[in-house]
# Entry
Amino acid sequence: MKKPVVENIDDLSTDIAGTTGFLKIERDVDPALVEADWQHLQKHGFVMMKNLISHADVKKVKTALEPLFDKVGRNEFEGEFTQRIYSTMAKTRAVDWLATHPRILALLDKMFMPNYRLSQLLGINILPGENAQFIHPDDGFYPVPRPRPPLGAASIFALDDFTEENGATRLIPKSHLWGMRKPTKDDKVSSAVMPKGSAIFYGGTFWHGGGANISDGPRMALTAQYCEPWLRQQENLMMAIPKDIVRKLDPQLQSLLGYSILPPYIGMVNGVHPLRLLDE
Ligand SMILES: O=C(O)CCC(=O)C(=O)O
Ligand SMILES: [Fe+2]
# Structure
């Protein structure tokens, strides 16, 4: 291979190895719809996608997740009456397609640098008796002052109808634009009431939280969080998902898990692309 020209910092951020590439994937989604979602997201801080997946698919996903829910949370944030599935991709193949839903990835393509990553993929089951989770932004643990663009983003797929009573996610519209302030009692909080099969998507600067469940049934959701490719993922997914599983995933999911680099070096292992580890 011809030796690449690397004379300055700009050259360094090109694909100098010539083998890593950015995955360029045509998304199977109407560009006008993506543009409308994008405009709504910019203005309100979130976008609701009603009836994004069918009830038959909701049923399949629920059937796969139900046996994986066991322990309840260990603190107010996880919820003392809320079950969470971590390392989800090590346990089931039933939700890979939700982590890569084209309508969501089309927004992430606009939001982040190429080779952005999955940061967490969680099942969340809010049981009757749960209090409301405190309202928070999902990327607040990255110590970078606001206002700023989001460093992460999340989808939440409703696997039950989300209602005011069963813990529909609570939202503060336009809170993505806030600086360092926190919510006060004067901020209007709304609820993501939506039928099962719908989803919401928001950037990491947007204030939200799980609702209280005063109903007599659970409120199940699947949430995928993503982050810029130059940030550390919340769950160390390279360690969480065994290599034998990763080898069989499609290249897009491999990249999302962390088998990708941000040129020139972020994410490399022993000087080479992390995908090479899958050949071992
Ligand atoms: O369950 C929900 O509706 C939201 C959960 C959430 O915001 C979180 O765990 O970060
Ligand atoms: Fe959250």
About this structure: The beta strands are 46-49, 82-85, 117-126, 152-158, 170-171, 190-191, 199-203, 208-209, 219-227. The chain has one domain: 26-233.
